[in-house]
Amino acid sequence: MEKKGQLSPSGSRQLNLKKSFKLGVRSLLTACPKEEFSKAFPKFTMLEQEVLHQLFVQVITSLHGNIEDEFESLCRETQVGTTVDSVEEHVQEQTLDPLYIDKIFCRLLGKAEKQRSSMLYRVATLRKEMQELSATADALYKLRSGILKISNKQVLLWWNLLLV
């Protein structure tokens, strides 16, 4: 059982995801020190630089909040928590099931057998088609030879008739 105040593993993973996102956003959107900010606007007076820097800090702070709120909203809409839980459950099943790798191997082996059968069927079909094409080619050759023989005989007959 979980103790009060203690998160489940999946809850802690969701929290870690959100913390990581916030850290990433903060590192990307960090406020600039006044000295650096003043160097970027050397032609402004000190008062103008101060006002600009305060405005900059307000914008960055607001941007942080908006981005974090949008991230939270997207997490809810896309059910990130449910997905993280599902992934965690799947990982635990793999860890707890000593036959998991065997099951995966058997599935892959089954797919390979189906592909092999399909390829053997295709090869047999192609061989049959090749035999049929060969028989057709032989028949065409014999027909052509017969036509040529008939034609040669006719030419000889015509030649003989002309000579007489």
TrEMBL record:
It is found in: Chromosome, Centromere, Kinetochore; Nucleus. GO terms for cellular component: MIS12/MIND type complex; nucleus. Its main location: nucleus. Keywords: Cell cycle, Cell division, Centromere, Chromosome, Kinetochore, Mitosis, Nucleus. GO terms for biological process: cell division; chromosome segregation. InterPro entries: PMF1/Nnf1. The keyword Cell division applies. This is Uncharacterized protein.
